[in-house]
Design a protein that fits this description.
Elements: H1 8-17, H2 25-62, H3 65-70, H4 72-107, H5 123-128, H6 136-145
Helix pairs in contact: 2-4
The structure holds zinc ion (ZN).
Zinc ion binds near residues 117, 119, 134, 135 and 137.
C-alpha cells in the first residue's frame, strides 16, 4: 500500500483550494469512532433482542401448561412484545446498514456531505445523527414530499 506523505502545511493549502468542503481527517476519525461505538451498541441490542425473542419462543414451544394458563392474560402482551421486538430488531438492522454506509463514506472521505445538495451537513446534526445522508433542509424537503 502506498501512503501519501504530505506535510501538514501543504495539506492545509490544498484544502483551502478545494471547493467542496471535505471534512478534515482528524474529524473524520472522531466520527469514525462514534460510528463504530454506535455499531457495537446496536449489534449488542440486536443480539439482546434476538436472545429474548428466542427464549420466549422456546418457553412457548416447551408448552409449560401451568404458566400458560396462569399467564393467559399476558398472552396478547407476549405476542405483541415479540412482534415489537422483531420490529425493533429490523429497525436496528436498518440502522446498522446506515452506519456501515456512513463508515464507507468516511473511508471515501465524503462523509458529512449531503447526498442531495453536496453541501456540508452541519456539525450538530452530524453529532446527533452521525449516519445521516442529508442536510436538514434536504431531509425536510424529502419529508414534505412524502
Ligand atoms: Zn442537502
Amino acid at each position: 500500500m502506498k501512503k501519501k506523505r504530505i506535510s501538514a502545511k501543504s495539506r492545509n493549502l490544498a484544502k483551502k483550494t478545494l471547493k467542496e468542503k471535505k471534512m478534515p481527517s482528524k474529524e473524520l476519525k472522531i466520527f469514525k469512532k462514534i460510528l463504530l461505538k454506535y455499531k457495537e451498541d446496536i449489534a449488542d441490542q440486536i443480539k439482546h433482542i434476538s436472545d429474548n425473542t428466542l427464549k420466549k419462543s422456546q418457553r412457548d414451544a416447551a408448552g409449560d401448561i401451568s404458566s400458560y394458563t396462569l399467564h393467559m392474560a399476558d398472552m396478547a402482551t407476549d405476542t405483541y412484545d415479540r412482534e415489537f421486538s422483531l420490529d425493533l430488531a429490523s429497525n436496528e438492522r436498518k440502522l446498522l446498514y446506515e452506519i456501515d454506509d456512513a463508515l464507507k463514506r468516511i473511508d471515501e472521505k465524503n462523509f458529512g456531505i449531503c447526498e442531495k445538495c453536496s453541501k456540508s451537513i452541519n456539525k450538530p446534526r452530524l453529532k446527533a445523527l452521525p449516519y445521516t445522508r442529508m442536510c436538514l433542509d434536504c431531509q425536510r424537503g424529502l419529508e414534505n414530499i412524502k
